[in-house]
Amino acid sequence: MSRLDELIAELCPSGVKYVPLKQIAEVGTGSSDRVNAVDDGEYPFYVRSKNILRSNRYLFDEEAIIIPGEGGIGDIFHYVNGKYDLHQRAYRIHLIDPNVNTKFTYYCLSANFKKFIIMKAVNATVTSIRKPMIENFQIPLPPLPVQQEIVRILDNFTELTAELTAELTAELTARRKQYEYYRDLLLTFGDEVELIAELCPDEVPYKTLGELGYFYGGLSGKSKEDFTNGNAKFITYMNVFTNLAIDTDISDLVRIGENEKQNTVQYGDILFTGSSETPDECGMSSVLTEVSDEKFYLNSFCFGFRLKDNNLLLPDFSKYLFRSQNIRKQIKRTANGVTRFNVSKKKMEQVVIPLPPLPVQQEIVRILDNFTELTAELTAELTAELTARRKQYEYYRDKLLSFKEVTG
Q1: Which helix (H) or strand (E) holds 396?
Q2: Which one of 47, 104, 208, 400 has the lowest number of neighbouring Cβ atoms within 10 Å?
Q3: How distant, in Å, are the alpha carbons of 10, 140, 218, 262 from that of 15?
Q4: What is the pLDDT of residues 255-311, one digit of tens each?
Q5: How many CB atoms lie within 10 A of CB 179?
Q6: How much is the average pLDDT of 370-387?
Q7: φ, ψ for residue 353, nearest 5 deg
Q8: Span 205-355 CATH architecture
């Protein structure tokens, strides 16, 4: 029998009482806004996200649990012990009962609060919560030694999980950097790469995109209703942003009239995202690498580029080329903006790309396809391991926090 089992058998063999948070804690919000955030602030500043900002002032000096009032409901919990600043739409839960452990309450909330909120909500999606919803959340109250033992077990489990997560994340990051290094090395066509020196004894020509083809826009004149009962496939912003090659196995549909004139995406077209909140994410590319009888339309927040001569670039080569560091640097310089950045198609015409012979492109594609496959396999394995460990942690956490309820 474990130490926890012994404590439960001794101190609460018949079960425990459940009480609403309002009986054992103060629940309230902060008064700060994001304008109070400073990069090198002295105190942690809790807002409505997982990210913890910094502030030069503090509103509270206490042990408490922080949850957002909007966004990430039931998924974001912060445990704090000390001075901190708090957003006006983030809640603090400060325990006032000396027989209730704050960290124990934190684990109870992280295990069951989301289920509680969804049960109380009219819809499955909860975008905001109010103080009474938090105050009415039921907390089990085993004796304090039981709470403390559960906290000790879960703290140890959390630490081990965090260490493993850090190791696996570092391995993922290292593999991705390794892949990007070899991709960029192959696509700079320098003499230092033996393969390139061998395959390209003559100098590789470079041309601007404006010399090689033209840009075209995505869908225009569409309303929200056109996307609720569509008859033709369209390529979303995220399809372009996340994929080297366009995923054509899609269910995203748009209504296209019989005689309607809209640009369609063709085999070999290079597609770009048109805007983003940061210049680093502007102009992300994806390529239609499959030949299909289906028509594909492009969403209005992206634009396409079409070569005048399809024999200049292999589509599978383009998918790597336009994500390489050298080309990405050029594309990022075409973006302008303050709070949101937009790519200038006029400036995009001046982006310079290499045009190696097709046999060279084929060999580079072969190498990078193999590397991509190996990286994807490793990523899948590591991601599965991370998921399994998190589920294991959640299983034991939920089991430890399940108590028989007694009344009276």
Answers
A1: helix 358-400
A2: 208
A3: 11, 9, 62, 67
A4: 998 889 999 999 999 999 998 888 888 999 999 999 998 999 999 999 999 999 999
A5: 18
A6: 86
A7: -130, 155
A8: Alpha-Beta Complex (3.90)
Weakest-pLDDT range from 42-56, 64-78, 295-309: 64-78
Q: Coil, strand, or helix at residue 228?
A: coil
Place of tokens 């296209």: 256
pLDDT tens column, 182-211: 888 888 886 666 767 777 777 788 999 999
Q: Answer yes or no: is pLDDT of 179 > 90.
A: no
3-class DSSP assignment, residue 48: coil
d(CA 306, CA 273): 15
Cβ atoms of residues 273 and 301 within 8 Å: yes
Helix ranges, 72-128 (H): 102-120
Angstrom distance (rounded) from CA 273 to CA 283:
5
Query: CA-to-CA distance for 209 and 284, rounded, in angstroms?
Result: 16
- 150, 103 contact by CB (below 8 A): no
188: closest CA among 306, 307, 330, 93? Answer: 330
Give this prediction's pTM: 0.69
The one-letter code for the residue type at 41 is: G
Q: Residue 402: in which H helix or E strand, if any? A: none
Residue 323 burial (CB count, 10 A): 19
Contacts of 367 (CB under 8 A, 6+ apart): 182, 186, 195
Strand 270-273 and strand 341-343: pairing?
unpaired
Fold of 19-140: Adenine-n6-DNA-methyltransferase TaqI; Chain A, domain 2 (3.90.220)
3-state secondary structure 319-365: HHHCCCHHHHHHHHCCEEECCCEEECHHHHCCCEEECCCHHHHHHHH
**b/e sequence 69-79, b meaning 16+ C-beta within 10 Å:** beeebbebbbe
Q: Is the CA virtual torsion 48, 51, 53, 58 positive or negative? A: positive
Are 240 and 308 contacting, i.e. CB atoms less than 8 angstroms apart? Answer: no
Q: What's at 112, amino acid-wise? A: N
Structure tokens at 388: 């399994």
Of the candidates 266, 260, 289, which has an alpha carbon nearest to the alpha carbon of residue 216?
A: 266
